Amino acid sequence: MKFMVVTALSFLASTCVARKCGNTEVPDALLQETARMKSMSTLKTLNTASSYSTRTQKVKLYIHNVYIDRTAEGGYISNEDMQKQFQVLNEHYASTGIYFDLRRTIHTQNGTWAISDKDSEMELEMKKSLRKGDYGDMNLYLRPLQGWLGWCTFPGDFEVGSDGYWKDGCDVLQSSIPGGTAVPYNEGKTAVHEIGHWLGLLHTFQGGCDGGDMIDDTPAEGTPTDGCPEGKDTCTGVAYPGLDPIHNFMDYSDDACLTQFTPGQTVRIYQTWDRYRAPAKA
């Protein structure tokens, strides 16, 4: 699928008005595995799992800037900008014990790749050419996306060399980096949110009031959040204690509003890591 560069430039010049994450559909296999993990994560487990609360995990990180031309309008960002994004990731994942080891920052000028859409042939071509490391390593592609703030691949059982293996990683709008122009999503937290999907987390509102993200300590939430509306409560009644988790990184709130992962999300990250990504290290 071909795109006109002028379309990308006009999008980059605009201000984002609502968070749009491309991870709207969760693979059935992951949903089934997540349900199994939920059954393992009883309240007793969450309260006594010191192995999770004290655990750490290094993740090798490769940050790619794929741009149209060497201008801000063309999607170009500096090595310093990529370092700032790296620092934000480590700051906000610190509570989970996940820490990123930045191995390389890589610039690639290719106008077609820069604006290639999710699940397109050009996206796959780009990643087959640029992807580094193995299935336990994070490849973050900062580029001028069309209509999205970002998306990530969910973990799955992919053979090395398969299309699913090559596509693994995260694509994030380059202007959402700290100090970028994608107000109010310009504190680098889009990458925090998207990498949460790569680590196995679902949206807090994924299954609505009666489904959610399949994590016990995430309050029920019926709809994604826009802005930072304190007191938002879309699931009411005794069956749904607590207000909506508008400060959770896996909601859609403005960047300034997002501040936390829950202990249950930390458990799910490590359950998912051990199930899908740790075997790559064996």
Essential attributes:
single chain; metallopeptidase activity; Collagenase (Catalytic Domain); protease; globular; 282 residues; disordered N terminus; alpha/beta
Summary of the model, kept short:
InterPro entries: MetalloPept_cat_dom_sf, Peptidase_M43. With 282 residues, the protein is of the alpha/beta class. It is built from 10 helices and 5 strands; from the N terminus they run ααααβαβααββαβαα.
Class derived from helix and strand content: alpha/beta
Cα(first) to Cα(last) distance is: 38 Å
Low-confidence stretches: 1-15
What is the tally of helical segments? 10
CATH superfamily: Collagenase (Catalytic Domain)
**Average of per-residue pLDDT values:** 90
Share of helix among residues? 25-40%
- Placed side by side, the strands forming the largest sheet appear as 2-1-3-5-4
Level-2 CATH architecture:
3-Layer(aba) Sandwich
Specify the overall morphology: globular
**CATH first level: which class?**
Alpha Beta
* Element pattern in H and E: HHHHEHEHHEEHEHH
CATH third-tier fold name: Collagenase (Catalytic Domain)
Number of strands: 5
Largest sheet: 5 strands, mixed
Number of domains: 1
Keywords: Disulfide bond, Hydrolase, Metal-binding, Metalloprotease, Protease, Signal, Zinc
Signal peptide: 1-18
GO molecular function, one term: metallopeptidase activity
InterPro entries: MetalloPept_cat_dom_sf (IPR024079), Peptidase_M43 (IPR008754)
Task: Present the secondary structure layout.
Layout: H1 5-13, H2 28-40, H3 43-48, H4 50-53, E1 57-67, H5 79-93, E2 98-109, H6 111-114, H7 121-130, E3 138-143, E4 150-152, H8 163-167, E5 170-173, H9 189-198, H10 263-277
Parallel strand pairs: 1-2, 1-3, 3-5
Antiparallel strand pairs: 4-5
